[in-house]
Amino acid sequence: MALRQDLDDYFSWEDDEKLEYATAVLTPLVPTFQGKLKRVDDDELHLQGQSGDRKFRLKVDFDSGWMTLELRITNRKGVLSLHRDKDQASGAPPEEPDEWDEQDRRETKEFLAPHIYIEEYADEFEAMKQLLGTLPGNTVAEVAKFMNAAQASRLLVDAESLEVGFDPDYYKVRLDQLLPYAVQFTSWLAGLFETGDQEVSAKPRVYIGGQAVTGGALNLVSCQFCGGKVQLDPAGHCPNCGAVNRT
Prior knowledge:
Layout lengths: L14 H12 L9 E5 L3 E8 L2 E8 L5 E6 L7 E5 L23 E6 L2 E5 L1 H11 L6 H12 L1 E6 L3 E6 L8 H19 L12 E3 L2 E3 L7 E2 L6 E2 L17
Antiparallel strand pairs: 1-2, 2-3, 3-4, 4-9, 5-7, 5-8, 6-7, 8-9, 10-11, 12-13
């Protein structure tokens, strides 16, 4: 089946056309990973597969164009959350907090490699910096190489999962090339985090005033950009990353 070529008009397609295209792109990958396709909600198609003993799923939001790779892991080292800014290679060193700052309510941002940075509240920022010091010396360089090559906007190593969020417009990506590379790299990275002896708690996904909170009665959704479970404002802005979500 020949794929459509009018990709610049993707967002003018009907929903069933987007689903048909996503199915056509993902179906050839199913036998490679002994996998299956699963329709989730109204606008997601998941490729569930396996590489060696490592189970994964590729979640494609065919409405918004966003794509996330998720692996199941047992994290024994600690939580790590990295971001990529494709337009900014580096930034100024983080400012030292002064006596008037409520440090636990102010995020610190620091570039670790070209385009790759940490941006977290104080406690998590320090914990992640300490964690990086326990990993092999080439880890940050290898992660940066991967994120830049794969056009990954974020990478989260959590308690039970490793997630990579890619830049939007999945439909313009050669998934037959990207997915094997991404699965191989993330499997290697997962192995590093499974060799420790720490009890790791999941990273909070919701923050209000710099404090982690649980969902409770909040109307939470997954941000299309940072992946956090958040409550959008009336205009669709994410309180974590500031991006406007399509509804």
